[in-house]
Amino acid sequence: MRRESGLKALLWAISMGVCALLVWIVADLVSRGTGPISLEFLMAAPRDAGRAGGIGSLLVSTFWIVAVATGVALPIGFFSAVLLAEDTHSRMSRAVRSCLDMLNAVPSIVFGLFGNALFCVALGMGYSILSGGLTLSCMILPILIRTMEQSLRAVPKEQRFAASALGLSDVTTLFRVLLPPASSGMAVGLILGVGRALSETAALIFTAGYVTRFPDNLLDSGRSLSVHIFDLAMNVPGADERAYASALVLVVILFVINSCVRLAARHFQARLAT
Amino acid sequence: MISAENVSVAFDGKIVVEAVSLELHCCRITAIVGPSGCGKSSFLSALNRLTDLMPGSSIGGRIHVDGVDILSGKEPPVGLRQRVGMIFQRPNPFPLSIERNIQLALREHGERNRAKLAEATEKSLRRVGLWDEVKDRLGESAMRLSGGQQQRLCIARALALEPQALLFDEPTSALDPLSARVIEDLIQELGHQLAIAIVTHDLSQAKRLADDLTVICYRDGRGVMVACGPATDVFRDPGDSDAALYLGER
Ligand SMILES: Nc1ncnc2c1ncn2[C@@H]1O[C@H](COP(=O)(O)OP(=O)(O)O)[C@@H](O)[C@H]1O
Ligand SMILES: [Mg+2]
Fold first, then answer.
1. Which residues of B touch A (CB under 8 A)?
2. ipTM of the predicted structure?
3. Degrees (nearest 5) of the Cα angle A59, A65, A68?
4. Does residue A151 sit in the same domain as residue A23?
5. pLDDT (tens digit, 9 = 90+) per residue, A186-199?
6. A16 and A97, same domain (yes or no)
């Protein structure tokens, strides 16, 4: 009994520690980063290598890079996850699964080099938002597929039997029976993927580039917010405060996306379930 | 209307049950009993080709439903499953509203008319005695029902398709005794309307329900049918030492 309560206290202490760390990071960002934040900061392009001006153009570039990445990865990931969840046994599906797990462990800089060779050079897209977005879509595909597949597979197989025993088609079974209970798990996969895309730097430096102008179209080079933070912190003396401000904005965006996706999943679940 | 001749089921080439022959007819209840793991569920699933969903499964022998060979692979199993429904051990309603649970399959099979859907919903819920309990909350999630109510909903869901036969795989063994009794009475009632096969572990239940009885026992590591016939005859004289042991032991 004594040992058990000791263990419990330890676990509590550890989880409090994790929460405290999060609070500390956010508090640090807020205390050092709120200074420069203003409407102007959020709208304008950076000037003087980021010491002046704002992050408006970077927000636009970031949005498009992440939009391309998720726009491409989400449908491919969804259908791959469905196929993998249906086919649990074949040698092929097991091979695909272990490839995905290996890809998931590949450092992002390797994806950067690959994306540069494939999209920028071989396919002639150059340093562009499109190259960056497509590279990120390759990078987040494994985690999207694996989390979505696992949430589909977590639906008890009795549900599948019940559906089949009623003569329901595979499509109805997927959308009416399997997706509602799986949707919150799938949303978590999406959040992980988008979060990863938003916070990526290494893979983007070689593919989307670091031009700070407002992009005109997807073939323009564009600097993402994370690349900007990296650049300010490493290469630009005297821009620390702006690095913190940009990081604060990034964290806020992550929180907002997180809540939106969860809300959307709940709404979706409720709608499918009626 | 269902006749199985010398049916065997194998997984990855390894036979788990073999030599099962029986016939299901309208308005008769056939009970299938035997020790666990001897392949009763596998055999039952073969009857409406639910085994298709189990990786590595294969069926041997012949199964005819309404004179049509269902193992020939010529027709898709969808029509078969409309005619031969299945109820499982654990109640497995969909995480949808009560109403949707019943209407999903009807819509799938082409019924779009709302009035007809509502009518079919009421009719099948009445058939399982659930209508009065749920008529005011048809839009609520089926997951909120009790285990026994969920199982009756699953039966109603199958009945809505107007099947000619229902296969029950230990339908009461996950329920409390009271709910189990309600389901058992319902099966008895349905036994006057369609062909029924029920796998059960409960020999007294088999005695109460069965018109015909099939006993499957282990032999050489696989299930084999050892006795079959009108229930009273088989209970009186199984005609096989393993069957006698199994029926007498409980
Ligand atoms: N999907 C499956 N894959 C492989 N083996 C299975 C599968 N389903 C059942 N079996 C095996 O078939 C045998 C019979 O199982 P089952 O039909 O469930 O028996 P019962 O219903 O009589 O308890 C068991 O040994 C079981 O391990
Ligand atoms: Mg069984």
1. 48, 50, 52-53, 55-56, 77-82, 85-86, 88, 90, 92-97, 100, 104-105, 108-109, 139, 141, 154, 157-158, 161
2. 0.89
3. 135
4. no
5. 998 999 999 999 99
6. no
